[in-house]
Amino acid sequence: MAEEVAKESVPNEASIERLVRVMETAYHRPWYMMWRSFLQGLMAAIGAAVGTALFFTILIWVFQALGGIELLRPGIEKFQQFIIPTKYIQQIEQQQQPDSTNR
Predict the structure, then answer these.
(1) What is the pLDDT of residues 30-40, one digit of tens each?
(2) Is residue 103 part of a domain?
(3) pLDDT at 39
(4) What's the whole-model pTM score?
(5) Alpha carbon 32 to chain centroid, angstroms
(6) CA–CA separation, 10 vs 46, rounded Å?
(7) Which of 15, 59, 63, 103 has the most Cβ atoms closer than 10 angstroms to its Cβ?
(8) Residue 55 forms part of a structural domain
């Protein structure tokens, strides 16, 4: 069985001639080849953009259905505590509290 697979994978003369004809056709029409490659790249980019937009739209929709920001609040608070030093948080809280001494 291994010999049959090996025989099938070896290119024969007809397949080589066919490859040569295709390459000659492509190289005699370089603008056609460039235009086709350009359109292929353009369609790939558009597909990636549409796919990304759909993915994030569905992700946001599911996120809102599950409770939105309340679901992430504990994680956001931990992140803030990790990033912002405590003394700065205390200063911000003091600035936000109304000053009771001026009354």
Answers:
(1) 788 788 899 99
(2) no
(3) 95
(4) 0.46
(5) 30
(6) 39
(7) 63
(8) yes
